[in-house]
Write a structure and sequence with these properties.
Length: about 230
């Protein structure tokens, strides 16, 4: 009977130790999960902040380049518009002058043709000068700078791979989330195993208690068992 009582005490002690272990393990794993969650939040916040900073930097750079390009385009357009307007006016004047002289050819046709030729030559020279101005605008360092800035703008847009960064961030967060999920599965499975052991030990302890009570009430059971 004393051996049986000792065995029951041992089983009860094991059951209590198992319960303490389960509770302690649950607390520890909860702390680990909470820590991972905090770290995940920190990773997400940091990555989001970095993307935002890159985005703001790229945006500022693109805005600066775009404004510069727009300003140069406006200046170039104004210069070309002035030169082309002059070119159009001179061309129209040339046509009017030629038509007028042709329609008034008379007795002094040779003199009029000579004068018309001179006037046409003058207007033609004006047209050529206007064309030279247009070409000068197109081949100035300012125009080259405009082309360079346009290239820079395209380069900035091509280098700003926010989509790639977001994808990389998403992959990192997904891996961290998988780690947390795996940990939770391990915790759940481990707790289930420990609880099953605890339940079995408790049932065994109850059976031994009942057996001990029966022996105390009817000692003859031991004699019959022998």
């Amino acid at each position: 009977h004393e051996n049986l009582a000792t065995t029951m005490q041992s089983i009860s002690r094991i059951a209590n130790n198992t319960a303490d272990l389960t509770e302690e393990l649950s607390k520890d794993l909860s702390a680990v999960t909470e820590n991972l969650t905090k770290n995940l939040d920190a990773i997400t916040s940091s990555a989001t902040s970095n993307i935002q900073n890159v985005s703001e930097t790229s945006q500022a750079s693109l805005i600066s380049v775009t404004n510069n390009v727009n300003q140069q385009l406006e200046e170039l357009t104004a210069k070309l518009e002035t030169s082309l307007t002059q070119l159009t006016n001179d061309g129209s004047a040339l046509i009017r002058e030629a038509n007028l002289k042709v329609s008034t050819v008379g007795e002094h046709s040779d003199q009029m043709i000579l004068e018309t030729t001179r006037e046409i030559l003058t207007i033609s020279n004006n047209i050529n000068r206007a064309l030279d101005q247009v070409n000068a605008i197109l081949y100035t360092p300012g125009f080259d700078s405009l082309m360079t800035n346009l290239g820079t703008l395209c380069g900035e847009l091509s280098k700003t791979d926010l989509k790639g960064m977001v994808t990389e961030l998403s992959t990192t967060i997904q891996k961290t989330g998988t780690l947390v999920s795996n940990l939770n599965r391990v915790v759940t499975r481990g707790q289930g195993d420990l609880l099953e052991i605890l339940s079995t030990l408790t049932e065994t302890s109850e059976n031994l208690n009942e057996f001990s009570r029966q022996i105390a009430d009817t000692p003859a059971i031991l004699l019959r068992g022998n």
